[in-house]
Design brief:
Blueprint (H helix, E strand, L loop, with lengths): L9 E5 L2 E4 H20 L12 H24 L1 H6 L14 H19 L3 H8 L3 H14 L27 H20 L8 H17 L19 H26 L1
Antiparallel strand pairs: 1-2
Helix pairs in contact: 1-2, 1-6, 2-4, 4-5, 6-7, 7-8, 8-9
Enzyme class: transferase
GO molecular function: phosphatidylglycerol-prolipoprotein diacylglyceryl transferase activity
Function: Catalyzes the transfer of the diacylglyceryl group from phosphatidylglycerol to the sulfhydryl group of the N-terminal cysteine of a prolipoprotein, the first step in the formation of mature lipoproteins.
């Protein structure tokens, strides 16, 4: 069993102002998309110019934050929301959903694309290879916060989390950081280095994230207030990832068929 490396969730405190590691992880993701996005926009097939990346990242960040918060409330806290609608605004209490954030990005890119004369999928094809940086960083933030820990286990690398009771648990946040962050980033960088059919890059990212998340959920503790959604093993995370696997696979096949018939 490994010792959980207790880290202060507050990275920097200046008087009453506290900067949390989790917030810095979001910042890392947005900065990475901005820096690497400008490089991607230099490709001949890019639908936008590098100078438009700053506005795209700003709009996308709003989509992530608003979509992530709204998605968390609707997917994981809907019953509480019915009794207390103002909890939607209580962002200081935490709670973000990847699936909600992803939908928020799609909506944001649709609005941005209307202004710049390109499709939402052309824009998400730029973002998709870069998003795993933010995903991996976010999971490290979860690990620092000692939240979203895994199920009890006796594997040699199990950890006792300060908020997870006395039982050793899977460090599932690190599993997700590796799969959804590092592995997904490497695959997407390899795949996107050449021009692909419109929608194909987005489709592969959606498909792979859905598969990775579905797999890791077998090691991650389901939300206490939800438990298992069905069949005594299906979690909310898996339920939300299943459509991603199906839609991502369909989009990938459709993208190549459209390119072949063009």
């Amino acid at each position: 069993m490994l010792t959980y490396p207790t880290i202060d969730p507050v990275a920097l405190a200046i008087g009453p102002l506290k900067i949390h590691w989790y917030g810095l992880m979001y910042l890392i993701g947005f900065v990475a998309v901005f820096v690497l996005g400008r490089k991607s926009a230099q490709q001949a097939w890019s639908p936008i110019k590098p100078e438009a990346i700053e506005d795209m990242v700003t709009v996308g960040a709003l989509g992530v934050i608003l979509g992530g918060r709204i998605g968390y409330i609707l997917f994981y806290k809907f019953t509480d929301f019915i009794h207390d609608p103002l909890m939607l605004l209580k962002i200081w209490e935490g709670g973000m959903s990847f699936h909600g954030g992803m939908l928020g990005v799609f909506i944001a890119m649709w609005l941005f694309g209307k202004k710049h004369g390109c499709s939402v999928l052309q824009l998400t094809d730029i973002i998709a290879p870069l998003a795993p940086i933010g995903l991996g960083a976010g999971r490290i933030g979860n690990f620092i916060n000692a939240e979203l820990w895994g199920r009890p286990t006796d594997v040699p690398w199990a950890m006792i989390f300060p908020t997870g009771g006395p039982e050793p648990r899977h460090p599932s946040q690190l599993y997700e950081a590796v799969l959804e962050g590092l592995v997904l980033f490497l695959i997407m960088q390899w795949y996107a280095r050449k021009q692909r059919p419109v929608m194909a890059v987005t489709a592969l990212a959606v498909l792979l994230y859905g598969c990775f998340r579905f797999f890791v959920e077998f090691f991650r503790m389901p939300d206490a207030h939800l438990g298992f959604i069905a069949l005594d093993w299906l979690t909310m995370g898996q339920l939300l990832s299943l459509p991603m696997i199906l839609i991502g696979g369909f989009m990938l096949v459709w993208a190549y068929r459209q390119a072949h018939n063009a």
